[in-house]
Q: What sequence folds into this?
């Protein structure tokens, strides 16, 4: 049982209304791995430079994440992103992007990764996603994330990659933009017609929705009074979601299992945004996760929902 | 048992990507009343002109809505709004607003309305909302809706009105703007600190959230492939929500009852947007409502949600 994720491993400098941090450990594969690590054995495929130190590696290994496929380029620098969030914390403003070693990233899967029991294609160039997909021989669930950059510049390649996966996780705007369909329900159907068995639409603070073979499931976001740093929330959602599915779904993609995975993803995303970078997720305990999962469930429970004799005609 | 609503009664001309209609029956009180009429006895307080015909009145009376307090101004013209929605159907673009008789609206409550068992202050000038509130002697639940126009131009008066009600129903942007607080959780708390026992934040296609004494409840929107005309969706939500509460809450504002009311509101809003103006709601049957309520419940059910032994430490 293991879940392999390919994506970016980065240093992020972030300013939000709550403060700022320089060169924190970040990147899609990092946030994904940490979130998933609470539920299953994770292997991370990525590339870093010589500036990526023992301390950064230890953040991953302390959570039992296998870094065998984390390539380190001697003399190179790690992918660097600088961004800021304004008062509403919704959209990041990118101030600087230095791809560095990430520009030449050619993911290499070790035997252990090629035969892992699930694969998540994090947000990298679609051509690389397809290449990794081809190398994967594990026969397990394959998921994919992407971003507007690839939708705008490499749409065809992205659609080709989507054709080869079981699950697509994208945010609302990405789903609409990729399908050129403003209605999310229809947009998700279009994506499923390409091949994926289900589509998860991430809606930030509004929650997430699942469109699959057994229909629709919608979920609010976990309500937070203080969002410190939204960076990586989507990746943490994906990590929790996929980590749960791989670790505990046993190949079962029924609604019950998928709904549980959605709630887990949401819980992990909610922790992610409560601290800068990975700091909150690093410090998480199983008890924290259990507690929030139960709270979250009670916040959306509709068990007692019966229309009963509410209509006037019933009176 | 009766619910009185004060608000606009209007003619709307609307163009959407799905077509256009001229001078349909519309207005906040109209949409609210029709939605609520499936759950309780409704009385509408509003003003119309001589152009408001028997056919328009009949749309209300056919649903058992009491129009005793619908003032008709001889020689006057009914409030008229013309708007259009673009491809994404999210925001209405106002092309024309003619207040007509609505400009001089001084709501007058008959004995029956003054003593009704609940009051909803639809979206009118905050000073008028307060005036109506003062006149109301029924001692029942009082709710309020508003809009950005009043938040921007009559904030103080609106806050005064909010201090006198039990429930506030606003959309996401309105709640943030009114409280100058971008975080919805804190914004809702600020509103509750003014007096209301609970706040409902309407989130359009993303659903709705309830912030009350017993905490948070979040709900997705009912997923629709085709949204024909969003005009009145928020009013239909409010009508379903308040209609259910008044008709069946028996003064019980427990989470179970409020959650049911939220689901009813969402169901009524989803019907509203499936047709132009009031046409879909006019044609609704109780069976339609029951069916969608049950479908909706199943789309958000998390009864089977147990984290169980999902964490790695459990293994």
A:
């Amino acid at each position: 049982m293991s879940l392999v994720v390919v994506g970016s491993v980065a240093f992020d400098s972030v300013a939000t209304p709550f403060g700022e941090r320089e060169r924190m450990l970040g990147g899609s594969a990092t946030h994904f791995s940490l979130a998933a690590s609470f539920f299953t054995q994770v292997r991370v495929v990525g590339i870093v430079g010589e500036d990526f130190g023992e301390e950064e590696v230890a953040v991953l290994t302390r959570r039992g994440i296998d870094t065998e496929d984390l390539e380190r380029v001697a003399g190179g620098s790690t992918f660097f992103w600088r961004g800021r969030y304004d008062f509403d914390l919704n959209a990041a403003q990118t101030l600087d992007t230095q791809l560095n070693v990430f520009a030449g990233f050619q993911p290499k899967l070790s035997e252990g990764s090629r035969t892992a029991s699930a694969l998540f294609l994090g947000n990298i160039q679609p051509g690389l996603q397809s290449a990794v997909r081809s190398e994967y021989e594990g026969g397990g669930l394959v998921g994919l994330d992407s971003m507007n950059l690839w939708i705008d510049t490499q749409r065809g390649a992205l659609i080709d990659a989507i054709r080869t996966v079981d699950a697509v996780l994208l945010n609302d705007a990405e789903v609409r933009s990729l399908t050129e369909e403003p209605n999310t329900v229809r947009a998700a159907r279009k994506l499923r017609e390409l091949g994926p068995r289900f589509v998860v639409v991430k809606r930030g603070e509004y929650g997430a929705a699942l469109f699959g073979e057994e229909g629709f499931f919608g979920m609010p976001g976990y309500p937070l009074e203080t969002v410190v740093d939204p960076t990586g929330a989507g990746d943490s959602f994906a990590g929790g979601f996929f980590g749960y599915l791989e670790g505990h779904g046993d190949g079962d993609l029924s609604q019950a299992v998928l709904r549980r995975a959605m709630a887990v993803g949401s819980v992990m995303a909610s922790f992610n945004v409560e601290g800068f970078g990975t700091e909150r997720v690093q410090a998480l305990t199983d008890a924290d996760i259990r507690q929030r999962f139960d709270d979250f469930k009670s916040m959306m429970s509709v068990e007692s929902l019966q229309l009963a004799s509410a209509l006037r005609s019933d009176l």
